[in-house]
Amino acid sequence: MAFNMKEVRIVSIDNRGRIVIPQIVRKSLGLTTNSQLMMISDSEIKEIKMTPIGLVHEQQLIKFRIVMKDEAGALAKIATAFANHGISLIYGESIIVEKEKTAIWTVMGPKPEDLSLEELKEILIEEGSALKIDILPLE
Hints:
The protein is α+β, with helices and mostly antiparallel strands. Helix content is 20%, strand content 32%.
């Protein structure tokens, strides 16, 4: 039987906004120099979550805001279009803008190597029935 170990540590932020991840935590998660972490902050509940991501160092992340119809299967159709073109998403969050009319799905994933962003937008509109797609800065 495997046990799930949780490490609880209190860390401080220095004057440049940096924190040090304790060695025991880095070791237990397999983090090394240049490991990449995804940080999600939620200002409503005052929480930060950090998750290791398995990107190759040279891969560039992109963030999309996809407007779609608010109907059953719409999100799955767009996700399938990403999958059909070999794009694994590392984060996604969806909200309903207007019930039974429009929704927004914000997703992050690696920039495709064999498609331009314009080609990917066209694919998501044609195959995924997206209504509008914006590429957002990650910073």
